[in-house]
Amino acid sequence: MIRSQFDRTAKLWMTLAALVLLAGTAQTSFAQVTNTNVYAPANYTAYQPPAKGGSYTDAVFGSAVKRLTDSMKMTRTDTGTSPLATIGPEYSTMSPFNSDNTRLILEHFAYFGLYDGAGNYLKDLPLDVNATSEPRWSRSDPNVLYYLRGNQLKQINAGSDAISVVHTFSEYSSITGAGESDISVDGNHFVLTGDKRQVFTYDVAKGVKSPTFDVAGHSFDSLYISPSNMVTITWLSNGASRYQGIELFDQNMNFVRQLTKSGGHMDIAQDTNGDEVLLWTNSNDPTPIPNCNNGIVKIRLADAKQTCLAQLDWSLAVHVSAPDNNGWVFVETYAPSDIIPPTGWKTYTDEFLQVKLDGSEVRRLAHHRSRPLNGYTYMPKISTSHDGTKLVFGSNFGLQAQLGNPTEYSDAYMIDLGPSVAPAPDPAPAPATTTLVQQDASGIAYAGTWMNNTNGVHSGGSAKMAMDLGSRVTFTFDGTGATWIGYMDEWSGIARVTVDGIAKGEIDTYSSPQKAQARLYSVTGLIAGSHTLTIETTGRRNARSGGNWIWIDAFESVSGGTTATATTTTTAPQPAPTPTGAPYHVEQTAAAVKFTGNWMSNTNGVHSGGSAKLAMDTGSKVSFTFTGDAVTWIAYRDMWSGIARVSIDGVVKGDIDTYSATDVPRSKMYTASGLPWGTHTISIEVLRKRSASSKGSWIWVDAFDYNGLALQ
Q1: Is the Cβ–Cβ distance between 552 and 535 less than 8 Å?
Q2: What pTM, to 2 d.p., does this model score?
């Protein structure tokens, strides 16, 4: 759900803490659970946290939690009144930790307190840095905080309190970042809006403002900046048209594409493979992807492809906090209704989750124990350090009801994840029930061409097999897991496995000698309910196999207890070796190089093969298809060259500026290496754009180098 204007100016927060007192010194270790059982916090309405500086261990999930503050014993610096009553991080999507985790800022009702990296209070920052000023830590100087006042971007040295003006935007009466965006990963760029109408980015290092985008009266909720300094605008209107949902803009504020049809709590990060991704709750999506209702969704900025990472019960709302490029995102859930366990308690209720960006694991860290005893400040707003090793959050622990604390009450807590550790053993699950389902049962649907095979080695004495590309079988089951049982031999091929519409990988079913009733793939730890497991033939095999056959002997469904992993893939032994290929050089005149649009030929000895092609019309495109794992675009560069967009397999990889002040023939303009072995297509599109230094927008194609198999 999208924050209201009240949220932005009232920003306080809540969430976490969990169980049983450990007491004493701060703990820096953590554990977690990865199954999907329902776990309610014990002694929910009576448990009280330790004193400030003390720690406790969440008895269900094992994380050590330190209490940082006691707001009921503090006086407000801005008014001189007592108690202060509300302390917490500003919001989930900007890190309260500085670049080296030695400093931390927390919001004290409407101004900010400074703490060391262990959460010990140091001092209050000057009141010029307040709840409306959006303070953001520098990425390069651990002492510097940037913040906004009126139409100025300012900075403060957190040690000396020295304040200076970075830039005055005299063309506006006020500037704002709309309350949610952090400084860019490069440490230089902010996304801002002038007078709540003109959206732009500002480069602190160069003192350069980008072109602006005029929202033209369309109401928006938030602005975010990606690691490559692209911008998202979340509009208040939902739908598939312009100025609806979440839209993406390039570094020059040119519209690129719609990412979602609705807004929602979110953050932006970089995946481990370099993809920029939006991590978003789709609770407001009018057309969610299949099997992902009220889900945590990863959206690739390059093409808006959605991947479901986790599903939640409809009783739960969330906030999202993403660290830098470490393969995880933190999500905390909260129930707007005052649920008292065990009645109404669901899987993941009032928890902090660490969700893997490939969708394979959800780690459950702690219960936050913050009850909805007010309209906003109770809400969990977990915030992570940039490296993902520290979490800070707020919780009221229901102390309004227990101790008579003020309605607007919260204190700050911290989990120090430290270096990555193995998951703790899960609490003993309820006994699991496994049901064997034969391949011809009513819950199994086949598509394509399948043959029957009767043999005593199979479960139930028979099995089905197929080898035609695209033949598939779908097993629909009700439970928390399932297993595909098949036959493996020297003529078996490679199958693709999908769970609830999400691709989980390819399974090589070849084996020598043969294996009957082999457990080829298992998925466990699913949310209890209806799911589908789909097996599809790929028409491929490894080099040792004599055929492409895929066998279906039976399935097992699991209900009740779960294992400690959300998804387990069992690949067959003896995986197919990855081909190494060979290097090849292909001229632009080759049949595998396809041109569309208006391209001109240029004959000159400086080019590879004595010729090249060039174009400057918008949308002119060239593509080269090959089989292998690496490719390089070779081109001519000069002072008349422009900017091109490069895509691999339809996924935009970036815009390449080909300008050069001097002539540079046979330049390696772009290289994609480490691709998964297979057939790939590199495309170069003319944008009719150029840098400020260039005199033209020409894009050249001279040749391609690639590693792979020879062209047919």
Answers
A1: yes
A2: 0.59
